[in-house]
Amino acid sequence: MKFQSVNELEHFSFEDSGIQELQVEQGQITFTFDGALVKAKNSQNSRYQDMYCGTLVLQLEQVQIARIVKEGLRYYDAEGRLLREVPDEDVPVTEAEPVLARCAKGKVFTTVEDTVEKGYAWEFGIDVPQEDDEEEVDTFWLCLVFESSKAMWEKYCSPSES
């Protein structure tokens, strides 16, 4: 790839980026995003503005899945009265693989950087279409701790080209 950025995740925005592919291999997770934004302060962005890139491949090395959470819901009636509540649900490690497969069809709505003693920690908030009704989404929080990151992309483009 023409552009490579190492350990600069804070200089990207993945909000509203579709996940085209999510590969999990021993010690490595690779995301392929559509619609990521390279911020102006990124070392590979020589322009003075945030720029979209077409397809961005993000590799996280020496990665551990710290936690996967399926976000709960609250259901209200038309008058604002709480009808029922579904609590957040921790996804057990044994069930991580099918959840990650679902996340590979999702869209990132936010990322949050956390502090850790060594390396990096990021949470990806991902909306995933429900299997039985694609108009409804399930929200997952994928919490990752890793040693290093490498983002790679081929070109910059306008939003209409991404």
Task: Note down, in words, how this protein is organized.
The protein has 162 residues and is mostly beta strands. 5% of the residues lie in helices and 54% in strands. The protein contains one helix and 16 strands. It has one helix at residues 96-103, and strands spanning 3-6, 12-13, 17-25, 28-34, 37-38, 51-53, 55-61, 64-70, 73-76, 82-86, 89-90, 107-114, 120-129, 137-146, 148-153, 156-157. The strands form three sheets. It has a ten-stranded antiparallel beta sheet with strand order 1-15-7-4-3-12-13-14-8-11, with helices on one face. The protein has a four-stranded antiparallel beta sheet with strand order 2-5-6-16, with no helix packed on it. Strands 9-10 form a two-stranded antiparallel sheet. It is globular, with a radius of gyration of 17 Å. The mean pLDDT is 92.
